[in-house]
Amino acid sequence: MQNFDLLMHGFSIAISVPHIALMIGGVLLGILVGVLPGLGAPNGVSLLLPITFGMQPVSAIILLSSIYWGALFGGSVTSILFNIPGEPSSVATTFDGYPMARSGRATQALATAFGSAAFGAMVGVVLITCLASWIAGVALEFGPAEYFAVYFLAFSSFIGVGGSPPMKTVVSLTIGFAIAAIGMDTVSGQVRLTMGIDELVKGVNFVVAVMGLFGIGELLIAVEEEMHARAVSSRIDWGEVFRTIVGLPRHGWVLLRSAAIGCWMGITPGGPTAASFMSYGIAKRVSRRRDKFGTGEPEGIVAPETADHAAGTSALLPMLSLGIPGSATAAVMMGGLMIWGLNPGPALFTEQPDFVWGLIASMYLGNIVAVILVLLTVPIFAALMRLPFFIIAPLIFIVCVVGAYSVSNSYLDVVLMMGFGVLGYLFKKLDYPLAPLVLAIVIGDKAEDAFRQSMLMSQGSLGIFFGNALVTTLVAMGFALLVVPPLLRLIGVWRRPVRPA
Amino acid sequence: MFSRRALEALTAAITGAFGIAILVQSLDNGIGWSSAGVESGTFPFMTGLIVVAGSLYNLARGWLRGREIVVTAVEFRRTVALFLPAVVYVALIPLLGMYVTSGLYLLATLRLQNGMSLLRSVLVAVVVSVGLYLVFEWSFQVALPHGLLGAWLER
After folding, report:
1. Chain A contact for B150, CB < 8 A?
2. How far apart are CA A137 and CA A349, in angstroms?
3. Chain A contacts of B122, Cβ < 8 Å?
């Protein structure tokens, strides 16, 4: 029950007037970036990163994680009311959310989505509360070889079960590694991969990549598809909200299964998007009312929303306990941790207990704050969506340019961001996954250091990765994730999560 | 306008070129084993190899797969109409600074490109530029670029 005491201590840190205010501000900003196409949780978090430099780390992480919760909820609002997913992970919510809203049950659709989302998030947080410090305890015993094996496992699961074409995932991931290597090498002090551009000695900041890949790239996709906001009424009937939320336990089995899928996909870096699609696909396959899916079936909202939020939340578990982020947004937050001078990983639990438990406690509160705020503000944000796209698009462009510049006051970063924008557009268009690229930029150096330290210890022999039972198991699991899914696909057992054409 | 084949080939060419650049550059740092351990070019060299190999695979696969059109002429025009002004915007920043350029960019896209009324587009442009100035220069004390114009004004 030591965890429980620590959690209570965390609450005593999280519940203070400034922290609650940060939560409210963060959630509102998060809903905003979640609602706007082109801006998402990774952008929202990176944009605010520079202003957190002067804050206490625990306040900063509360602000950033609240943006994350807000964005997860905001993405569902537009999916349901406008049939436009504000976030990639809420695409699956449009399948049944929008038809339900269009048939005059907008309140029921929103309340179902938020209720199941909150349930998913809570399961994720409880999982973190119970498991994080235990995993961190195990990981404290890790040496460089074990670390490299864990990184390897994380990357393999991206490639094996991430849902994108495996070779495209490999390319995306390794490009991220190469970008991480640009600049000063921390081990030898040598300058690497600058392509003759002196300013690149400082390296390429992940925020620049996020702004380009997720911001500009998504904007270009959005304008190409010429989105029309055909909104349905966004008036909220509070009696209906209450009745819907009270009625949610009827879908108990779907809720539990979707939460489990979400947690699994969040911890292994499958990410919220894959989780929501997979959960929707399974719900549709096993439901007795499967022919009703796509026409406004409540379970078609419950399944993706629960999994989306469970995955979004549990993506923070490996970030906290191992230093390996489970999603692009978690990767950005981890970048923030390193900038604040914290060392993400198992030592965090012993060295910074206030930070860790303050954050975990704030996750409980932040999600409750997010549900309340998102219900209260639905009409406001729905009105915002009625602004024509030709006004929103240049504004988002300006936000991304300013955001990229202000990371390190460098014009080169703005130019790089535009390049990342084109790359992001092409990658999205052709099903290359973006999250592995960002992930690799953030943890590439750590993975490389782990590899080089292991090599130093073994005097250059790869045998160190099979030196003891633990490391051998990790490496073997990594290889299994690489090899088994293609084999299963070959014999036709495994099918990829359903994706819309 | 563009087939999937063309886009796949373009993307694979970009990633492949990047991969080759990594290979060439990392040779300068030395690959392999020295007395100080793994040399600093080794890890990038390995990633470069994988990027090149993966790009070749994606090129071949993308070339074989579907000739269907994934970007129509209309869609392409819309994308260019958004991206081209943005490129000009970024290119003008060193000259005119962030605030003036942002205002002009908004004015141009709203008024010239999308026919918003002059009054409203000027209003949006001014509010955004001044807003940026107040938020960054004034409350966060972060200086966004003032450009050559700014340098000339501050003489």
Report:
1. no
2. 8
3. none
Residue A445, min C-alpha distance to chain B (Å): 10
Domain boundaries, chain A: 2-490
Q: What percent of chain A has pLDDT over 90?
A: 30
Contact assessment for residue A211 and residue A404, using Cβ atoms and an 8 Å cutoff: yes
State the complex-level ipTM: 0.94
Delimit the domains of chain B by residue range.
Answer: 2-71, 81-153
Q: Amino acid identity of A256?
A: L
Q: What is the largest CA-CA distance in chain B?
A: 70
Q: Note the Cα B34 to chain centre separation in Å.
A: 38
Sign (positive/negative) of CA torsion A320, A322, A328, A334? positive
Q: Which residues pair with B37 in a beta bridge?
A: B34
d(CA A372, CA A374): 6
Region label for B149, one of left (φ > 0), alpha (ψ between -120 and 50) or beta (otherwise): alpha
Q: What token pair was written down for B36?
A: 């100080």
Q: What is the H or E stretch that residue B3 is in? A: strand B2-3
Q: Residue A453 contacts by C-beta under 8 Å, 6 or more apart in sequence? A: A144
Name the residue among B18, B44, B57 with its Cβ closest to that of A167: B57
In the structure, what pLDDT confidence band is assigned to residue A25 with cuts at 50, 70 and 90? very high
Q: Check residue A122 and give its pLDDT.
A: 94
CB pairs under 8 A between A and B: 164
Contact state of B41 with A192 under an 8 Å Cβ cutoff? yes
